[in-house]
Design goal:
DUF2282_membr; 2 strands; elongated; alpha+beta; 39% helix; signal; 2 helices; two-stranded antiparallel sheet
């Protein structure tokens, strides 16, 4: 194997390992909307204005989420996706 092939093989192995372990890390967790501090969200928002972690701009935005232990979201002051989507859609309608 030449150097480029070795690098490509290593990158592929890392990508596969990450993809396989990600669901295991999320087991027992749920998305909790409205509890993340600015810049502390875990991924994309309900509005679809970004798709990456760390891009929220205000604290406790109801469209932003963080992974929390299953069953703890509401006790943390957050809401599950169905409720967040309902509030987001209502706010969008005016």
């Amino acid at each position: 194997m030449n150097q480029k092939q070795k690098i490509a093989a290593a990158a592929l192995a890392m990508a596969l390992a990450t993809a396989v372990s990600a669901p295991a890390q999320a087991a027992g967790k749920e998305k909790c909307y409205g509890i993340s501090a600015a810049g502390q969200n875990d991924c994309g928002n309900l509005a679809g204005t970004h798709s990456c972690a760390g891009q929220s701009t205000v604290d406790n935005d109801p469209g932003e989420w963080k992974l929390v232990a299953k069953g703890t979201c509401e006790s943390l002051g957050g809401m599950l996706k169905a409720e967040a989507k309902k509030r987001y859609d209502a706010a969008k309608q005016g």
